[in-house]
Amino acid sequence: MADKHPMIGRVLADDYKIVSFLGRGGMGSVFSARQLSLNRQVAIKLFPTCDMTTAELQRFEREIATMATISHANIVTVYHRDKFGDPPTLFYAMELMEGGSLRNYLNQNGKMLPNNVLRLARPVAEGLYYAHQKGCIHRDIKPDNLLFDRNYRNLKVADFGIVKRKSDASITKTQAMVGTFVYASPEQMHWYETDENVDELELDERADQYALGVVMYEMICGCPPYQAKNMVSLMKSLNEPPVPLSERVGVISPSLNWLISTMISRPRDERFSSDEELLAAMDSVELEVAASVSTRVLLPKQSATIAPTASKKSLSETEKQFIQNLQTVTNNESSEVIRKYKRILLISLAILFSLIAVIGLYELFLHNKIITRKIPVVANVQYDVTPPADYTKPQIYIESYVANAQKIPIVAQTRIKPGSYTIFIDFPGYTCLQNKSTITVTKEQNTLLLNINFVAKKRLVNTEVTDIATKQQVTPASLKIDGKKVQGEFLLKPGTHKVDLYFHSHEEIHSDIVVTPAESPVQLEFYLRPLREIILNLDTVVQKVDGSYYPVEVWVDNVPLDEKYYRYDVKKSRLHCFIKVPSHAKNIMLQSGYFYQKVSIKEIYLLNDLPNIDVERLLKHLASIAKREDLSLQVEKLLGNDLEKIQSLPQQQKQMLYKFLVSLLEGENPNLQDPSWKLRLSLSKAEAKEAEYFKKLLTIDDFDENLRQWKSFSKKYSQSVFASRALKQVEYYQKVVNYRKILQKSVKDCYLSLSEKRTIFNLKSKIADEDVKKIHLVVKKYLKQVNCGESLEQMLSEK
Description:
Among the domains are: 1-96, Phosphorylase Kinase, domain 1 (2-Layer Sandwich), CATH 3.30.200; 97-291, Transferase(Phosphotransferase) domain 1 (Transferase(Phosphotransferase), domain 1), CATH 1.10.510.10; 459-526, Carboxypeptidase-like, regulatory domain (Immunoglobulin-like, Sandwich); 532-605, Immunoglobulin-like; 615-683; 750-797, no CATH class. Helices cover 37% and strands 22% of the residues. It contains 21 helices and 33 strands. A six-stranded antiparallel β-sheet has the order 1-2-3-4-6-5, with helices on one face. A hairpin with a 4-residue loop joins strand 2 and strand 3. Helix 8 packs antiparallel against helix 9 and helix 14 (651-664) packs antiparallel against helix 15 (675-682). The longest helix is centred in the middle third of the chain and has 54 residues, at 317-370. The protein is elongated. The two termini are 67 Å apart. Residues 16-285 form the Protein kinase domain. Keywords: ATP-binding, Kinase, Membrane, Nucleotide-binding, Serine/threonine-protein kinase, Transferase, Transmembrane, Transmembrane helix.
């Protein structure tokens, strides 16, 4: 039987009790759990961070926070995020999808019917559309990340922006491809051909569209369009068109084949340009496929015949004659019936043609009368991004199929005759799905309602930033739009976007910009403030026990400064720092290990040492030292160099350090030579006083006085850390005194019996040799006084 997973039964964040282990992926382990506060089943995903840097850890937490803001019926909901342990293990609680992944379903059941594929894929596309509007690109759509509910009726998208594996190098910046390569879009694998960073390429919603198309292809065919064992062979196969659906599954709807072929087009400009266009196409294809399925009739094969049952014996002559007579009677009767109904049919047809002629004449009269009536046209205009109030208005025209017809502008009170028309729309900055589409107006209509949907075009953005004050162009060191790093010129959807700009010589910019619909490029413009450069030389260089140096951290106005704005090195036991800070900065703090110094920018000249101790960091550092010997060395270094700094700490922080040492040394006997005990005693006046008394008793030479003093100490300090050791001293000196008394009493007659020798030898074995010698000297003096004939050695001999 497999061992029980150590996480089973554990409670995370005081609310999530781990129930069972579900599986392990490349990025973490998944468990089912019960949320105690709400009594519901959830899924827990764990991400160990032992291989992450601090910056990666912070970026992961920001991405999980972004995931928690995505709330959609077709995206797995993230309920909670947290971490535990040291080093921390990150986790998040999410909606439990009991149906498992689409991958498991396909492995067990094989391919699916096209109408079911469209029914399941449409909500997934809606969920991705919602996420894309939030500025999130999934980048890893595949059957493993699409999960079924309990009834296998709906699919939901999982793992939005999850932290990458160790090979990814970082959270949002990686030299490895994002996404599983079989489902990844060609632009995601562009790094493989050009050795460029994939996040520095412009990925948009069309990357997820491509992956969803590959998944739909696999759902219908049972395999992806491109099959390869590694990325090299995949890159080669991508140069060839995929195998058409019709060759894999036989007859298939042409519209469905067009839909999926468009979605998995290698040039992304040949895919659907937006999520709205993709959803509209899926709706049309779903209707057509559903109609073809509902009207499908199964016909028998043309060659099928009904064979007569062979008889084991031939019919008798009487039976044959009966059958012939029966057939003759039947044929005669049926011929008579047919002739009768032919006459009725001819009369009915004559009456029907007469009625048709009358109705036709009547319709022609009505048509000539009604055709002149014009139908009013009403345009219902919808925008995905509302244009500004002063923006130009859309121009909507319709043109009849009649030769030399003029375009009719659609304005208030426009009326048109029944007939067929083409819609023409002109609106700078927008595209329209209804442009150049055909409509038919019938005479029965009271009003023609034109539903016009405008989708704002993406605008070109130049990454050069204009300084409003100087009108100069400045190239940023890094640019992020909505949390995504961009480089070079790129396209941006109109709307409100978060911009993060980082410069080499100017302060960072974190702001929202509003991009309005237009045809012209977008120019980023801000007031830029130059950075102030600070050079520091410190006498103190903080070293670890192994001789290496602790990294230096810089904080400006209580916010950690990004490493790209400072550098440092060590030369001749001095620390040299070069720091760039904003011009409005008020204070600065340098931290190395658990030492720090904080000063105002005006008093920067005072920052030449790191005299303060960060107790919390010190405790974390001491707790991370596994070997007791290494811990003693580290504490000994503290006592030798920084005891004054420790003594000058506030009482509350000294108490924190003292409690840590109490916990660390729990179960150990006091060792006055151990550095950890020395540091502990220096932090407690009461224990320091007890230690002084203890050391004083160790210097007493008289056995009886020793016994008396140790008994007094044990009684007075029964709750002391030295109490157990004092009791041992009492027990020992009781044995020493007993040995002395028994030995003195036994040698009075200058003779030791065998039983006395045994008692003496038993007591002697429990006493230190040094103390035995002292007692023997006293006894020998007594033997000289009484003039015994034998020496003590002779008496104690075994003979």
